């Protein structure tokens, strides 16, 4: 095994039960325990409220974070959790941090989860929120020309898919995209899926199981909105910040996405957190190096949105 950064020790300890459980209820409970163990209180200066966004066929719960001195920028945040777990509470420390450090209004999306709701449920929920926000940004004090998409892990896959869909459909406009330790629905046979298959928290088998729950039938296997890896073109997409962890099965999905964007002429920044694991943002409250990785994301958002 490669050397793991000391800032990841608290993450490793917390992750011992994060991927446990045999039933979906147990899996989600374990995730909630894991994420809450690494959380920190929100700054009192932030205004936070939950609401429903009316999208076609399904009202989507979101949590809206507003800064005391908002900049007019807005970020839609899609959490990770393999499409099967995660909610507004488990993603709260990640979401409020973006608002606190950038001044942007952050809309965290509580999209529907597998196995109850396979593709395209999560995609439809998130894209529906994007469409609503583009038309109603003023209601949140935001500028519709300054909307960024931010997602980690499964959320990074959703962000990439939404950028493809917005391009293909002629809108809504997306000012920037951020994909953090993203999955892409790849074939999972690249180097990182082999080198980092076990021993670093997230496993390759877990990634395979998650994709199987997202796409339980052959119907959508070739759909790039389900598997952005399969997109025929990566041209004309928003400026991107792609952030991977070195010791992570999905690392090469991030490398692949950044390379494809660059080759297509998209303005892209790629950053790799050396010696770090999937989920490193959650270690920012205790580790200065993990905090620097999180700060780099916020700096990109401040500059680009």
TrEMBL record:
Do the record's keywords include Cell inner membrane?
Answer: no
Descriptive protein name: Alpha/beta hydrolase fold-3 domain-containing protein
> SUPFAM superfamilies, from UniProt?
alpha/beta-Hydrolases
InterPro entries, per the entry: AB_hydrolase_3, AB_hydrolase_fold, GDXG_lipolytic_enzyme
**Is Hydrolase among the key words of this record?**
yes
* Tree of life domain: Bacteria
- The species is Falsiroseomonas bella
Q: Name one GO molecular function term.
A: hydrolase activity
Q: What Gene3D superfamilies does the annotation carry?
A: alpha/beta hydrolase
- What keyword terms does UniProt attach to this protein? Hydrolase
Q: Which residues form the Alpha/beta hydrolase fold-3 domain?
A: 76-281
């Amino acid at each position: 095994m490669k050397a793991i950064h000391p800032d990841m020790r608290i993450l490793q300890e917390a992750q011992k039960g994060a991927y446990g459980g045999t039933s979906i209820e147990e899996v989600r409970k374990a995730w909630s325990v894991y994420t809450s163990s690494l959380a920190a209180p929100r700054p009192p200066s932030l205004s936070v409220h939950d609401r429903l966004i009316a999208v076609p066929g399904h009202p989507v719960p979101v949590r809206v974070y507003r800064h005391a001195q908002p900049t007019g920028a807005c970020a839609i945040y899609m959490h990770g959790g393999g499409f099967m777990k995660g909610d507004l509470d488990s993603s709260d420390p990640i979401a409020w941090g973006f608002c606190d450090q950038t001044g942007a209004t952050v809309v965290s999306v509580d999209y529907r989860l597998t196995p109850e709701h396979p593709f395209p449920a999560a995609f439809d929920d998130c894209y529906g929120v994007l469409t609503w926000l583009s038309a109603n940004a003023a209601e949140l004090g935001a500028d519709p020309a300054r909307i960024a998409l931010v997602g980690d892990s499964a959320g990074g896959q959703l962000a990439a898919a939404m950028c493809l869909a917005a391009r293909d459909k002629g809108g809504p406009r997306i000012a920037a995209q951020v994909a953090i330790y993203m999955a892409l629905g790849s074939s999972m046979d690249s180097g990182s899926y082999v080198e980092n298959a076990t021993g670093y928290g997230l496993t390759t088998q877990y990634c395979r199981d998650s994709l199987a729950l997202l796409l339980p039938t052959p119907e959508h296997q070739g759909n790039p909105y389900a598997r952005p890896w399969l997109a025929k073109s990566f041209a004309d997409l928003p400026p991107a910040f792609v952030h991977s962890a070195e010791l992570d099965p999905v690392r090469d999905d991030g490398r692949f996405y950044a390379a494809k964007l660059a080759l297509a002429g998209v303005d892209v920044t790629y950053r790799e957190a050396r010696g770090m694991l999937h989920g490193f943002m959650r270690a920012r409250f205790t580790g200065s190096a993990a905090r620097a990785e999180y700060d780099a994301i916020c700096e990109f958002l401040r500059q680009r949105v």
